[in-house]
Amino acid sequence: MSSLKNTLRKKIQEHRPRTTELLKKHGNKVIDQVTVSQIIGGMRGIKSLVTDISYLDPYEGIRYRGFTLPEVLDKLPKSKGAEMPYVEGLYYLLLTGEMPTLDEVEEIMVDFKNRRTIPHYVKDVIDSFPSGSHPMAILSAAVTSLERESLFNIKYKAGISKMDYWDSTYEDATNLLAKMPLIGAYIYNKLYQNGNGHRYPDQSLDLGANFAYMMGKDKPYDDVSRMYFIIHADHESGNVSAHTGHLVASSLSDVYYAISAMINGLAGPLHGLANQEVLRWLQGLKEQMNDELPSEEEMKKYVWDTLNSGQVIPGYGHAVLRKTDPRYTVQREFCLKHMPDDDLFKYVNALYHVVPDILKEHGKAKNPWPNVDAQSGVVQWHYGVTEYDFYTVLFAIGRSIGVLSNIIWDRALGYPLERPKSVTTDMLEKKVEKKVELIKAL
Ligand code: NMX
Ligand code: MLT
Fold this sequence. Notes:
By secondary structure, the chain is mostly helical. The chain contains 20 helices and three strands. The structure holds nitromethyldethia coenzyme A and D-malate.
C-alpha cells in the first residue's frame, strides 16, 4: 500500500472517534440559527457542512488544512528550478493534513503515472460532440462516461462494509484525478487544434508539467498549470461546485457521477465560468478602445455602463470573502514577475484601481473586491491559451482535487445522505405572523 494511503488510513482511524463523540455526546447542541433571509437567499452563511480540508475566513481567505496559500506554495515540495510546487503534493496535504516530504510526493507521482491513461471510449465521447458544444459540457460527459470503471460500485455490489467505502473511493478518486488533465488536454486539442496537436503523456513529467506538455506549451506554462490547479483546488464546502460534488456523492453515487455534477455546477457564470466572462468583458473594452489602454475616466465609464445595463462585473464580489481574494494576489504576483508589460494585465491592474470604489458607490455588492477569476484568464491568455471558453475546464481540473479529497473523507466518516428540509411560503408567513402577534400581545 502507498504511504499516502497508509497515512490516510491512520488519520481516518484517529478521526472517527471524534465524529462519533460529537454525535453521541453533543448531537443536540445548537451551532447556528436560520433566518428567513438565509432560507430565501441561497442559504448564505448557514453553518451546515463539515470539512477539515479547507476553511474560508472572510477577511483572510482560504486555508488548506490550516495553511494559507502562500504557505502552501512555499512549503510543498517542488521540482528543481520550479517556482510552483508539485500538484501531487497538494493531494497528500489535503487528504492527510500533513506536509509531504519529497520522497512521499515522488511516490504519489509514480502512482499517478500508472493511472495516467484514458480509455478509447472517452476519446470517442469527446470526438462525438457537435461543434459549438461548450468544453465544460464535453468534460462533464467525458467524466460521466468513465463511470463504468468505478471500483466502488463493484465493491458495493459485492456487499462491502460501510467502514471500507473510503478505500475503493480513494482508488476511484486517484484514478480520476490522474486522468483529468489528460481529458482536459484532449478536449483542448480536439476543439481548438483540430486534433492535430494531440500528444500522449510524457511519463517523465509531474502532473503540472505533463499537462503543459500535452497542451503543447513551453515553460513557464508548467508552473502556470501547477499554480492554477493548486489555487483552485478547494474553497471549503459550501461553494456550488464543492457542495454539488458532496451532495451527489452523499447518495453513494460514485465519484465519476459526483465530479461530473461538480463540473456542471462550476459551469455557471456566477461561479467558475466567471473566468471566461472576465476575458470576454475585457475584450469588449479593448475593442472599444481600439487596443489603447483606456484612461481612468474611460475605464470607469465602461464599468458603470456594465452595471447600468443590469450586468455584474465579472471577477468581482464574493458570497463569503470580504477582501481581495488571496488567489487573486498569488496570480497578480506571478504576473508582476513574469508578464508586467502584458496588455491585458495592464487592464486588469487598472480595473483593480477603479472597480472596488465603483461597486461601493453602486451600493449593492457586499464585497467590492476582486475574486480568483479576475486574474486567471489573463495569465492563460498571455501564454497562448486564448480560447477563453476553455478556462473553466482548468478550474474544474483543480477543483476536482479538493472535491475528491472531501468525498473520500465523507465516506470514511460515514456522512449520511444529504437531505435538508424545505418549507412553503405559507409556512414562512405563518411563522413570522405568529412572532409579530406574540410581540403585539406583550
Ligand atoms: N457586480 C455587480 N453587482 C454585484 C456584483 C458584481 N461583481 N457582486 C454582487 N453584486 C450584486 C448582486 O448581483 C446582488 O444584486 P441584487 O440585490 O440585485 O440581486 C447584490 O450585489 C448583493 O449580492 P452579494 O450578496 O454581494 O453577492 P452574492 O453572495 O449574492 O453573490 C457572486 C456572489 C460571486 C455571485 C457575485 O458577487 C457576482 O455575481 N460576482 C460576479 C461574478 C463572479 O465573479 N463570480 C465568480 C465568483 C468566484 N468563483 O469563482 O466562483
Ligand atoms: C470558489 O472557489 O468556489 C468560489 O470562490 C466561490 C465560493 O467560494 O463561493
